[in-house]
Amino acid sequence: MRAIRWVALIIIAFGAAYLWGALQIRESTTYSAVGPRFFPNALGLGIVLSGVWLLLMPGAPPADDAPERIPLDWLSLGLLAAAVIAYVLIFRPVGYIIATALLMVAGAQILGDRGHLLRDAIIGVSLAVTVAFVFGRLLNINLPSGLFGF
């Protein structure tokens, strides 16, 4: 059996376990169109269907010069993992906007063109502020404000 089929079976098993866990979420007694299980169930179903699709249609093996055959850039992968760990550590102390903006800038610098720091900073800050506004003002979900109060 090709390796991709094993991966598909693992994805299906993970999705099934996730769905089982999602079904354990208790529904509230109040009526609402979308309950607390809706999104976890939708996500679990999507995972299972993705695994089934991959199992049934794995595609042709990649050519020798295809991106799938190019070796991983372990340095970039390690730097990105370090950036995510740093994000987790500074999230509460410095707040959502600063931590997220720093993560986005770091991710763009690690994975993208390193010559555009100003552009990456503008995009990172803009996205962090926009998401904070949507969550804080429109959805009424509190995000950590951090040291500077924003």
List the keywords.
150 residues, mainly alpha, 2 domains, 5 helices, 0% strand
How would you explain this protein's 3D organization?
- With 150 residues, this protein is an all-alpha fold.
- It has two domains: 3-65; 74-138, no CATH class.
- It contains five helices and no strands.
- The protein has helices spanning 3-23, 38-56, 74-94, 96-111, 117-138.
- Helix 3 (74-94) runs antiparallel to helix 4 and helix 4 runs antiparallel to helix 5 (117-138).
- The radius of gyration is 20 Å and the shape is flat.
- The protein starts with a helix and ends in a 12-residue tail after the last helix.
Task: Give the helices and strands, then pairings.
Blueprint: H1 3-23, H2 38-56, H3 74-94, H4 96-111, H5 117-138
Helix pairs in contact: 1-2, 3-4, 4-5
Question: Can you count the helices?
Answer: 5
Class from secondary-structure proportions: mainly alpha
Instruction: Categorize the overall geometry.
Output: flat
H/E element order = HHHHH
Main sheet attributes: strand count, strand direction, barrel closure: none
Computed Rg: 20 Å
Mean pLDDT: 84
Count of individual beta strands: 0
For the record, the count of structural domains works out to 2
The end-to-end distance, rounded to whole angstroms, is 53 Å
Helix percentage range: 55-70%
